[in-house]
TrEMBL record:
This is Very-long-chain enoyl-CoA reductase-like. PROSITE patterns: S5A_REDUCTASE. One of its GO terms (cellular component) is membrane. It is a multi-pass membrane protein. The keyword Repeat does not apply. Residues 155-308 form the 3-oxo-5-alpha-steroid 4-dehydrogenase C-terminal domain. PANTHER family: 3-OXO-5-ALPHA-STEROID 4-DEHYDROGENASE, STEROID 5-ALPHA REDUCTASE C-TERMINAL DOMAIN-CONTAINING PROTEIN. GO terms for molecular function: oxidoreductase activity, acting on the CH-CH group of donors. One of its GO terms (biological process) is very long-chain fatty acid biosynthetic process. It is found in: Endoplasmic reticulum; Membrane. Keywords: Endoplasmic reticulum, Membrane, Oxidoreductase, Transmembrane, Transmembrane helix. Residues 5-80 form the TECR-like N-terminal domain.
Length: 308
């Protein structure tokens, strides 16, 4: 049973913010203790990033001092993550926003395309199909956020949600404006192109969902630890043989399908941006797996089998 003295420094200025004597807690309890001696009482634990290295990763809440490479006097660094917001609010604003915004264009609210087209509907069946697929995608995400994902953090920084809302809401409006526009023209190869895109879309959505279930099962016993995910009996998860983040591969596939279905340039641009963003995240997650697990399957790439 070892008691520690912990000095907490600001990650940027290296000024001492707090000195805790005789602690042997895990990080989240220590963060709780440190609120009292940090200069600002608004620094509740979820706002605090506590690190071993000023520019390193945050220590996990359940990490305990005994298992860290520190002596009985430890120096840790503190970074303020800014105000936090709970996940309920995050999913409501981020995902319900695009759903609602899309409908404003689909139902052609009077202020959208002018009074001549107010509340009219498109003569092209693919426009109805696109609305169903778009809504399905975001409803699925809402349901997954509530019932499937087991996040390791209970909150998200407020500034992230503002940035994400601009991204998701702005793009939803931009895509919906063009797809539901009175001058929209359906895809060049007609019904064959649409049928192919819908089948691809459904496969990718099922794949994405299967991966989310597999990741959630890794945390069935309430832990917050990241384990190596492996393929299961469900064929949609076999993509785990080849990539570290198949949920992103399927997500990009769903947006590519939506682009083929609508044959619309803004949808293609959004898909490209999603792909770039998810590739950056997937590479980061992939390198973390490789670094953390010596036995990590070497055939796996980050997001695209054998390529990327
Ligand atoms: N269209 C877009 O631009 C876009 C962008 C991002 C995401 N998305 C969609 O949103 C979904 C979720 O995104 P995300 O970035 O949160 O995905 P993610 O990082 O893969 O995480 C999904 C869930 O699985 C958990 N998890 C991940 N790896 C794990 C592991 N090795 N062991 C145990 N649990 C693990 C995560 O917990 P943690 O809390 O620990 O991370 C989280 O709860 C994506 O799959 C995608 O469908 C879309």
């Amino acid at each position: 049973f070892v008691l520690y003295q912990v000095e907490i420094l600001d990650w940027k200025t290296k000024q001492q913010l707090c000195f805790l004597d005789k602690v042997n807690d895990n990080i989240v309890e220590m963060a709780g203790d440190s609120i009292y001696c940090l200069a600002d009482p608004h620094w509740y634990p979820a706002r605090q990033s506590i690190r071993l290295d000023p520019k390193g990763k945050s220590l996990r809440d359940e990490e305990i001092l005994q298992h860290l490479p520190v002596g009985t006097t430890a120096t840790l660094y503190f970074k303020d993550l800014g105000p936090q917001i709970g996940w309920t609010m995050v999913f409501l604003t981020e995902y319900a926003g695009p759903l609602f915004i899309y409908f404003l264009f689909y139902f052609r609210m009077p202020f959208v395309y002018g009074l001549n087209d107010k509340l009219t509907s498109s003569p092209h069946p693919v426009v109805n199909l696109a609305c169903i697929c778009h809504s399905f995608h975001y409803i699925k995400r809402l349901i997954e956020t509530i019932f499937v994902h087991r996040f390791s953090h209970g909150t998200m920084p407020l500034r992230n949600i503002i940035k994400n809302c601009f991204y998701y809401w702005g793009f939803a409006a931009w895509l919906a404006y063009y797809i539901n526009h009175p001058l929209y023209t359906p895809p060049s190869y007609g019904q064959n192109q649409i049928n192919f895109a819908v089948i691809m879309f459904l496969i990718c959505e099922a794949g994405n969902f299967s991966i989310h279930i597999t990741l959630s099962d890794l945390r069935r016993h309430g832990s917050k630890i990241r384990k190596i995910p492996y393929p299961t009996k469900n064929p949609f998860t076999w993509l785990f043989f080849f990539v570290s983040c198949p949920n992103y591969t399927y997500e990009v596939g769903a947006w590519i399908s939506f682009t083929i279905m609508t044959q619309c340039v803004p949808v293609g641009l959004f898909t490209l941006l999603c792909f770039i963003q998810m590739t950056v995240w997937a590479k980061d997650k992939h390198y973390t797996y490789v670094r953390e697990f010596k036995d990590y399957p070497s055939i796996r790439m980050a997001i695209i089998p054998f390529l990327l």
